[in-house]
Specification:
By secondary structure, this protein is an alpha/beta fold. The protein has two domains: about 5-120, Response regulator (Rossmann fold, 3-Layer(aba) Sandwich); about 130-225, Arc Repressor Mutant, subunit A. Helices cover about 40% and strands about 20% of the residues.
């Protein structure tokens, strides 16, 4: 039985979410503020967290995300927010959320997004370890290192890097990344990929003589120990 944590101060919305998830035979815990929510997120084992962006106690969704990821907690987080601006989506992605859904929303869409998160987490990798040059990704423990130095990657960053590593020396397009890493079947018209690639470069390539992440202009990106010929 999946276990979901809902951090939501709106009583009616929280009840709607909890009832819908329980109808799907899930175990649900609801927290009405950020302090209780973070405590539950840290002390409990959850398959996914549904997190309201704005909370009443000054400990909002961004701060919760930053605290969780700072502690190495990799539980998938879907942010719910009435804020639909692109900048707000980017802020949450930078803080470590895995998906972002604006209010009002249809429960069927939220369900589909959570199921997509769970599929990515639970999918069985064909090999437990991927290696590209001195980069090493352990797909089971979700540990990444380069040159023996641990890389502190957020869950989405790890999935993005793992996808690039599975296609080592091949160019992957933006459409491939949106479909396989974000589970989008449409272009959200944001710079979400650019933001994550930039963050990955800072963590994977910074301080190393040989860059591994390459931009193939007009096409996409490539992970390789050699500079692509395109």
């Amino acid at each position: 039985m999946p276990r979901f944590l809902i951090i939501e101060d709106d009583t009616q919305n929280a009840r709607f979410l909890a009832e819908g998830m329980r109808e799907l035979q899930a175990e649900v815990c609801v927290c009405p503020d950020g302090v209780q929510g973070l405590t539950q997120a840290v002390t409990g084992h959850w398959d996914a967290i549904v997190l309201d962006r704005m909370l009443p106690d000054g400990f909002d969704g961004i701060k919760i995300l930053q605290a969780l990821r700072g502690m190495g907690n990799t539980t998938p987080v879907l942010v719910l927010s009435a804020l639909s601006a692109t900048d707000e989506r980017v802020r949450c992605l930078k803080a470590g959320c895995d998906d972002y859904l604006t209010k009002p929303f249809a429960f069927s869409e939220l369900q589909a997004r959570i199921e997509a998160l769970l599929r990515r987490v639970q999918s069985t990798a064909p090999v437990p370890v991927l290696e590209v040059g001195d980069l090493r990704l352990d797909l089971l423990s979700r540990h990444a290192e380069r040159g023996g130095r641990t890389l502190q990657l957020q869950p989405r960053e790890f999935r993005l890097l793992a996808f690039l590593a599975r296609h080592v020396d091949h160019t992957v397009t933006r459409t491939m990344l949106l479909e396989s890493v974000w589970d989008y079947r449409f272009d959200p018209q944001t710079n979400v990929i650019d933001v994550h690639i930039s963050r990955l470069r800072n963590k994977v390539d910074k301080g190393f003589e040989q860059p591994l992440i390459h931009t193939v202009r007009g096409v996409g990106y490539c992970l390789s120990t050699q500079t692509p010929g395109l």
